[in-house]
Amino acid sequence: MKNIYISAVENAMVVCPFLTEKYQASKNCKKELNYSDACDVAFVPCMIQPNFKAKGWLGLLTAGMLWIDFRNPDNFEQSVESLVKEITAACGDKVAEIALKVTSEETKQLVTPQKGRAFIHISTNKYLAETGEVITHWGSGSRSTLTVTDTPEDTSFWVQVKEKGSEIVFFKNYATQGYLGYDPNGDYIYTKPDHYGAEEWLLMTDENDDTGKRAVIIFANYGKKYLTVRDGELTGVDDVSTDCRWYLH
After folding, report:
1. pLDDT above 70 covers what percent of the chain?
2. pTM of this prediction?
C-alpha cells in the first residue's frame, strides 16, 4: 500500500466506500478499506450502483451497515445531505472541530454534533418517544413506556451503541439514558436502565426507498418482530410491510 493511502486513512475520521462492482473488483480499494478497518476508522458506505449486492471482502466489511442511497440521480442533493448527517453521527464529538471552522450557517447546521437520532415513522409522520409513564415488570423492575408523537420531544432522540464487528445495536435514549426494548409477550415497546437480550435490535437499510433519505427497517432481535405503528399504537409484526419503514432524523 502506498504511503499516500496510509496517510489518508490514518488521518481520516470516516471512510466512505462506494458500493459498486468496480470498487469491489479494485485491489487498491480492498487494501484501503481493510486498512481502514484495522485502524478502527468508521465506515459510511454509499450505494451507487442499482441492484448491486456487496460480496466477498466488501460484503464482509460492510455487513449490517446502513448505506446512503445514491442510486437515483434525481435525489442527489438529498443523498448528499443524508451522507453529511451520517458522517456527523459516525464522527460524534470529533465533528465539533470541523463545525468551528465552517463559515456557511446552512452547512454548520448539518455538521454540528446532534444529541442523537430521531426515528420518524414514514406512514404516519410521527416520532418515537418515551411517554414518561413508568410500569413495573416482574422480572426486570421499572420500565418506561413508549409512544409516537406529532413533533420531536426531548425523549425522541436515541444514541446508537454498537460493538465493532457486530450487527446488534442498542438504542439509548439521550434524555433518560434508558435502553429501547421490545416485550414479545405483551407486544409493547419500552425503555429500561440496562440492556440484555430483549434490548437487542437490528437496523437495516430500506432498499426499496429511493428518496435519498435515511430510510430504515427496525427489527427486534429477541422478539423477532419488525417495529411499526398500527391504529396509532406501536407494535411488532412478523413480516415487513410498507408501514414498517422509518426515517432517521
Report:
1. 89
2. 0.83
